[in-house]
Amino acid sequence: MSYRLQGGRRVRRVTNAGNSMKITKAGLPLPFGWFFVAQSSQVTAGTVSTVKMFEQEWVLFRNQEGTLGLIEAHCPHLGAHLGMGGTVDGNSIRCPFHDWAFDTDGRCTDIPYAIKNGETLKKRAHVGRLPVKELDGIIWAWFHPGNTEPAWPINSQLPPKWQGTTPRQAFAFEINCHIQEILENAVDYPHLFCVHGNEARFAIKNEFNGLHRKSEMADTVSYLDDDGKKIAFPYLITVSQTGPGQGLVYYRRMVEIAMLFLATPISSTRSVLRFVFYYGEVDSDPCIDLLIEQFINEKIGKPADASGVYADIPIWENKVHREHPLLCDADGPVMQFRSWFGQFYPAN
Ligand code: FES
Ligand SMILES: [Fe+2]
Q1: Is the CB of 282 within 6 Å of ligand 1?
Q2: Quick check: ipTM above 0.90?
Q3: pLDDT (tens digit per residue) in 105-138
Q4: Which atom from ligand 1 is nearest to the alpha carbon of 82?
Q5: Residue 199's domain is classified under what CATH number?
Q6: Total structural domains in the chain?
Q7: Assign residue 204 a region: left if phi > 0, alpha if psi is -120 to 50, beta otherwise?
Q8: Tens-digit pLDDT profile for residues 162-191
Q9: How many other C-beta atoms are found inside a 10 Å radius of the C-beta of residue 79?
Q10: Is 248 in the same domain as 130?
Q11: Pocket mutation for ligand 1, best pick of 59, 97, 121, 127 (most atoms within 8 Å of C-beta)
Q12: Which residue owns the Cα nearest ligand 1 atom 3?
């Protein structure tokens, strides 16, 4: 069996070791779906920035009318990089080399010095673009390796009380790993105990339903009070995913926190994983504030003691993809997850 990458290149398994065959990380293709690009608040009118996603560079800009554009980085004229000196002019971005202008759909709107063929050439001088949408303070892009329009609309995953609000805190990690390997952790329940020391090992509910999947589990977090006495707080955790790029962990009990976990492919072997937090206004109760602060610190962790996500990163960066893993009866639904995730790869 082989895997097809973009451009038709095939990568074959490098070993043949019975039921535990492995393939290289490069064997997994790019999935299609909606993916995090940036926080809305960081892209004000007139902002131009370069983002690397989906094996190439893109230029993200907001025109003076407030509309976002996410277009291919290089100008169709003589190839200048629109993100390196390009400037917003009205509804368009102007190339730094010869001032040609392109709107948020990548259409050429001006060739300022053409004499006779400007209008004709404008129709041909377009750059590729990705559909974008703003939701919950986040700019999302639809990506499909075949450049198709969105196969489903993007909807908020947040609990209603936080829909339409802006993130309270966000963290980003660049990781040398395909996004499927990162997201598979969400159903790898034993790793929560083995790697993170969490008390809950098993999900109490698992559902795979079309574009969506959901799991619930009970967990306990313990804190020491001022007298050094351990106080345990039970949590109910709901994890839901829609497509490959949208994920939510909703923690409910003493405090409520929504954490979006959002993986965006930079390439088939490098990804950005983001944790984006939404929670109620900072409470006047210092105990609640402390719980939220400790909770976020615990989820993010520290590189020095390899805690939180820093415990996962070296595992992700050095693992291989086992196509036929040996799973015990208490492992999570890894193969169901892979089958569900597989729907987001283009058909050969
Ligand atoms: S390279 Fe962009 S206008 Fe010439
Ligand atoms: Fe983890």
Answers
A1: no
A2: yes
A3: 999 999 999 999 999 999 999 999 999 999 999 9
A4: 2
A5: 3.90.380.10
A6: 2
A7: alpha
A8: 999 999 999 999 999 999 999 999 999 999
A9: 10
A10: no
A11: 97
A12: 98
